[in-house]
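Write out the 3D structure for:
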Amino acid sequence: MLDDPLRDLIMKSSPQRFWQEIASRQEALYNEAYSYSFNEGLWEKPEAETVLPVVRRALFENVVRQAARVARVESLDMMHKGDNYPYVLVKCAKLVMTAHHVPGPCHFVRPAESRKQNAAVNEWLDTWVRQELLIRPLPDLRRSGNVNVLILHGQTREKMEGKEISSSFLQLAIPDADLNEYRRIYHVKDLLQSYSQQAVADKVDVRVADRARPAIRRRSK
C-alpha cells in the first residue's frame, strides 16, 4: 500500500463501518427515490423530475446520519447560511464531512456559502500538498487542524446493446480552502480495500509474547 498521509488520516479518523454502511445502501436508496418520485401516481412526469432530486437528497442524508450512528461517530443537523436548507455534517476526529450529489465522478460541488465556510479549515493543506512551493516546513498531520471532506455520490448512465445501464459512484473529495478545486479524491471502494489491507498487515505484525519459562535441569545423583 503506497504511502499517502491524507488517506491514512482518513482511515485513522473514520471507522470502516461508516463507509461500509453508506456504500451498501447507496444503490437501494437511488431505486427507492426513483420509485417514490415516478411510481406513486401522485403527480405526472414533469413533477416527478422535480421531486426526484429532493427525495434522493433526503434519503442519502438520512443514510449518512444512520451510518454515523451505527459507527458511533458524531452527526449534526445543520442549516445552510440563510437558514433556507438543512444538511447533515459528520465529525470523526479531525474530519468534518458533508454529502453532495454530483452529475458524475470528480465533478465539483455547486458553490454555497456554508460549503465555503466548511472548506476554509483546509487552508493549511495547500502548503502540505504543493510540496514544490515549500515556503515553510510541512505541517504534521497528527498535529494539524480539521480537514473538510466532501462525500460525492451519484450515478452514471451509458448505453450497452441498446439498454441503458446505470452504475453508482461514491468518492471522498478534499477541496482547497477557497473551494475552487479538489486537492485529493479517493474512491470509497478503494478506501475500503485499504482498510482490509491494513487489517491484514496489522495481523501479520502482531507478535505473540514469549511466556515460556526455562526449566533448570539438575544433575541426577
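The chain has six helices and six strands.
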